[in-house]
Write a structure and sequence with these properties.
alpha/beta; two-stranded antiparallel ribbon; 193 residues; 24% strand
């Protein structure tokens, strides 16, 4: 499985503390995408499903669930299906983001198997002309919340607030994860510098 980054504990990728898997590779090419570095399928790092499962297991008592984003998670549906089933077996919930529409995913065998172990699907491409940060976790108004189980409710998501986390890798690389208005964040940072 090809990943851009694994974040063992985050509060910026959905309700509760979550294990976040940023997959590498995306063919959607949404104009204005903030994650262009994740488009190239040849970049990132190869990790085994077993290793990811071990990392989730190490966090399982301190997290609520697992979030798949990227890149395009459904382009690596087989590997993520195994991880999602493992997460459910550990009592964790699963959120998956996709640039595909739910209806398209239902017509693909590999994707529909992954959907069987997803609790909340957030679908649809980012569309710059429809940019909207008034709802949590999404960047444009066309994107939908599809509740595939009762582990999440619309009321819970309405109470969730977008946020960013600034992180530093062991090598000193600074990166940002989360969702919100990056231009607004840049203006705030500029005011402090």
């Amino acid at each position: 499985m090809r990943v851009h980054r694994l974040i063992p504990r985050t509060e910026a990728e959905g309700p509760g503390v979550r294990f976040c898997i940023w997959v590498q590779g995306c063919a959607h090419g949404c104009e204005g995408c903030f994650a262009e570095a994740l488009w190239d399928y040849d970049k990132g790092t190869e990790v085994s499903v077993q290793d990811v499962k071990r990392q989730i297991e190490a966090q399982a008592k301190q997290i609520r669930g697992v979030t798949f984003l990227g890149g395009e998670p459904f382009d690596q549906a087989a590997a993520l299906t195994e991880i999602a089933r493992f997460a459910h077996g550990a009592g964790l919930d699963v959120i998956a983001f996709t640039g595909y529409l739910y209806e398209t995913l239902l017509s693909r065998d590999d994707a529909s198997r992954l959907l069987d172990d997803v609790d909340l699907l957030i679908d649809g491409p980012y569309i710059r002309a429809l940019q909207d940060f008034s709802r949590p976790l999404v960047g444009s108004s066309n994107q939908r919340f599809i509740y595939l189980t009762d582990r999440f409710t619309p009321e819970e998501l309405r109470s969730y607030r977008n946020r960013f986390e600034i992180r530093v890798d062991p090598d000193g690389t600074v990166f940002l994860n989360g969702m919100g208005d990056l231009n607004r964040l840049r203006r705030k940072i500029d005011n402090y510098i």
